[in-house]
Amino acid sequence: MRPDASPPHASPYVGFQKDLRGVRSLWERFHAGMLDLEERRTTYHELLLGEWQRCTALGVDVAMTRGRLLSSEEFRRRQEAEQLLLETSVPIVREVSNFLVDVPGIMILAERTGTVLHITGDPAVRERAATHSGIVEGSQWNELTAGTNGVGTALSKGRPVHVLAAEHFCEGWHSWSCAATPIFDADGHTVLGIVDFTTIDADFRDQALGLTVSVANSIQARMALHRELERRLLLTAFSDASRHYPHDDLLAVDQAGRPVAHTPSERCRQLAERWPTEAAAVRELVCDSLAVTAPSTGAPIGAVLLLAKPAGYQKVFRSEARPAWPAPQPAAGPERPVTRFGDFVSCDPSTQRMLEALRRLAEADVNLLITGETGTGKELLARHVHACSPRRQQPYLAINCGAISEHLMESTFFGYVKGAFSGADPRGRAGYFESAQDGTLFLDEVGELPPAMQAALLRVLEDGSFQRVGSCEPRRARCRIIAATHRDLTQLIAEGRFRRDLYYRLKVAQRCIPPLRERPDDITLLVEQFAELMRRKHGLQSVRFTQAAMDALRRYAWPGNAREVRNAIETAVLCASGTIDLDCLPPELTQAPPPAAPQEPDGPQHAPDGMAAVRDYERQLIVGMLRKYRNVSQVAHALGLARSTLYRKFAELGIQQAEVLGGDEGSHLS
């Protein structure tokens, strides 16, 4: 291309033949004030002069030699604000850097204000950049701060740029060649960050700009996929809110404040069109909002906004009671913030500290032992520890050690070869340790393991080796072990029923979930969460509790912990007609508060009876339906049972109709 040729949308940094000597002379005369106004210059030089004049007007110090460094606190806030950009971009930048081993240069990732978030590349170039020019993580390179440069000019222009040597406004950057490309959000206009390849000017490569364009496009594609997933979550929340507010105007906006969906009305359409340019005025119409967050990280995705009725609405239409705003993440008040760890939520301070510890342990990749009473949510925690761990892309397998026959345990855990025993699969079969691969193996009720299996498990935990039943070929276990139990393993060790060495292998890290009676603040939290969950599950319009019902729920000791809360609330929701009162609750909740749950006796012969919990749930459900319908035929129809089956259930579960129906049994049999 000729030096005076000017491509469409000309930029002095792309599309021109570089003229290093001429640009250096032009730069010196510009800063010395010796430019001849009548001099005939190429389009390339005219555009450069315009850039330098703009930097002069901005007050940029031409003599600066080091980039501005943010304080550690300010840099930390920038990192937290751009966590998604970091998580998406850094793996791609590092992967590309692996192919640039012999190329002297560094790859820089900067965010939307020009702050450098990540640097990787040639150690010698990186050291020189840090020492001579202050190009380090936490330094700022927008044009207002550092004049024309790769990062700042790409931000300013919103397009790829290549700033070589004296094209930089500041003389301190003349020894560098910078090629940079913006990373755009899914809308194609919003700049999220910059990918920059910087090298010494003498090592300039023509391919540098194409490299940054390619990397930026890869990051954009991954960000676009993430944004689409966020958009679908936001649309799901909008759909749920629309069913909750069928007669109100709603507007869903993403994290950047862009409208995503709105109620199909002319008023909402106009408000959505005005939102980007008149957001402040439209926000005055917002009377409530529902924050939508990512289920795994809790990061904000957007919000569903409830808009006030049009002016004069109350004069024309009858005032109507508005249902409570749906709350997928229940709040416990400003003084009791809620901590969420997957599906496990708590506002109890000690439990919150335990959850924060688990969040850190998830990354540590060590064996973990979780203890706590039945129903406290041990598997919920184990599943989310896996989801937060480096193994999250690998399998997660959960095994109830108390539900496997002692004779089948070895083959179940380690697998077997063909012909190992009668009735075996002729092809052989992999056990849990093989199937888990590089993932996580969750051993629930590990205290129920028989002695022989404890010894076999210890061998795997010690050196990672095992053999399939019927084989002498050693295999390696690569999975992480998370174990859980409701038993006191130290007591079992004292009684000689659990191996001490296995205990210490399992509890590299150990955390205990307090029972629900020890964290009363969580009762209301769980009740509200399960009520909303059951409302959605059964397609109900609204669910509310009377004060008497809520007081009874708070007073109860909940020996079955969160599992019992869930069962009780589901029964109450099914038995109620939108309002849950005392009659809808299981009978034990409306009686005098029971004493604290006693310690469960040890020994396999006294293991908790799982069917007892099922029978208790059936009894609660049938009693609640009887109180609601007060008619056996209607109860049988609602439950999908024959009347004869229902009467048999009465006998099995000890349900006396006269007691439930207030002594008037005969009039309600038909």
UniProtKB/TrEMBL annotation:
Q: Where is the Sigma-54 factor interaction domain?
A: 344-574
Q: Which InterPro entries match?
A: AAA+_ATPase, AAA_lid_NorR, GAF, GAF-like_dom_sf, Homeodomain-like_sf, HTH_Fis, P-loop_NTPase, Sigma_54_int
Q: Which UniProt keywords apply?
A: ATP-binding, DNA-binding, Nucleotide-binding, Transcription, Transcription regulation
> Is GTP-binding given among the entry's keywords?
no
**Region called Disordered, residue ranges:** 588-610
Show the SUPFAM superfamilies listed in the entry. Answer: Homeodomain-like, P-loop containing nucleoside triphosphate hydrolases
Q: Which PROSITE patterns match?
A: SIGMA54_INTERACT_1, SIGMA54_INTERACT_4
Q: Which Pfam families match?
A: AAA_lid_14, GAF, HTH_8, Sigma54_activat
Keyword flag Transcription regulation? yes
Q: What is this protein called?
A: Sigma 54-interacting transcriptional regulator
Highest lineage ranks of the organism? Bacteria, Pseudomonadati, Pseudomonadota, Betaproteobacteria, Burkholderiales
